[in-house]
Amino acid sequence: MKAILVLSSLLAVSCASNRPAATNAPTDGAEYYQLNQSGLPASSRLYPDPQGGLGHSQDPDIRVTDIRLTASYTVVYMTFAKDPNSRDGSYFGTSSISFNPKAKLASGDGRKTYALVKADGIPMSPDTRDIKNDERVAFVLYFERLDEGVEHFDLFECQSDNQNSCFNVAGLAVENPARPTPAKLR
Fold first, then answer.
1. Which of 5, 7, 18, 27 sits at a 20 to 30 Å CA gap from 84?
2. What range does the record give for the signal peptide (predicted)?
3. Is residue 153 pLDDT above 90, yes or no?
4. What separation in angstroms does the CA of 167 have from each of 9, 39, 61, 103, 179?
5. Using one digit for the tens of pLDDT, what is the confidence trace for 13-68?
6. Domain ranges of the chain
7. pTM (2 decimals)?
8. Range 46-171 has CATH code 2.60.40
């Protein structure tokens, strides 16, 4: 009887899983947004933001995932993906996407604009790319570099209408402080 009890307990222990419990958490902490995490460095930015990515767009299929400043460019990383839970039935089928070469970034006060220089991952109009509506398209836009001190801006591609939805995003922000002006020499 002892042998059966010992075998039963060994069998139960060997069948128990040593794996951690399954979760929906991303494998990489950089894959998701954490609101108000005071322990993170000020420059750390985690995406995608569940409240709509950076900025605000009237089109829920558009998302800004990152903004970076280089010596020459303001680089805007975006995605386009149809919502599978959309109630308008537009998830099935195909779409055509392109980006208007006349798109601009406008400073928050509207006094200055910055032209689009190039795009990667999305064709420039009039060329288009056909995509399946279950496809997610990531692309990168390169604009003239924002002037120092311009930290709030909007992306304006075109005027949306019943036929076309434009990649317009308001309320974008990036850390870009103005340099202090040197004191005048006496």
1. 27
2. 1-21
3. yes
4. 62, 34, 9, 9, 31
5. 555 544 444 444 434 333 334 444 444 444 444 444 444 447 888 888 889 999 99
6. 46-171
7. 0.67
8. yes
